Amino acid sequence: MTADVAVPVFADFHCHTRHSRDSRLGEDDFIRLAVDRGLTHVAVTDHNTVAGSVAVRRRVAELGLADALQVIIGEEVSTADGEIVALFVTDTIPRGLSADATADAIHAQGGLVSVPHPFDPFRRSHIRSDALERLAASGRVDMIEVFNSRVTFGRHNDAAAEVAARFGIPGIAASDSHTGMEVAMSSNALAPFTTAAELRLALGTNRWTGSRTTKLVHLGTRWAVARNWLGIRRGADR
Question: Rounded CA gap, 17 and 30, in Å?
């Protein structure tokens, strides 16, 4: 590790909470686990909303932990071409736009574009290869997940790393956590940052580590979807 990162921060740039339909992880549990497991920076990236990251940031402040855990406002956006993660945005990016329009909307808010699990064949939501190539070639991608803990086979993470290397895009690791057991399974050690511009520079110092989850975590997210759907149905019936 270089002298510039003598005291690195530890970040996870892709996390979910109860504000995603496939997670039931509450703010307090998420915060406790992140801090206990050594994370100093987290991007809460619930599906198609920044509500989760706003709620976690608010709760961190209420608990007096703002100095211990920086919360990045984020969102995992369902574009017409597959999913893109937005970091350091201020408002929810609408779903259904093209990948190009989504990336432009993120950058218009001063945010950064991250591409999650681009080659995972078990998630139909991943970005299409042609859209990824187009975004990368046009300089619209700020980082790519070269390791995602929920990707089942290593070769699909390797394929993401190849694209990142070919286009000179920084690679990151992400837990993609939806449950408590997954929090901090992957992390990035890099120079301290507080803004999008500082993170862009800090990515050059990144040293990531990660481990893969078992296939059973996907059963957990399906259970969360069912439980959340049932809760909505019950609420509608009252």
Answer: 7
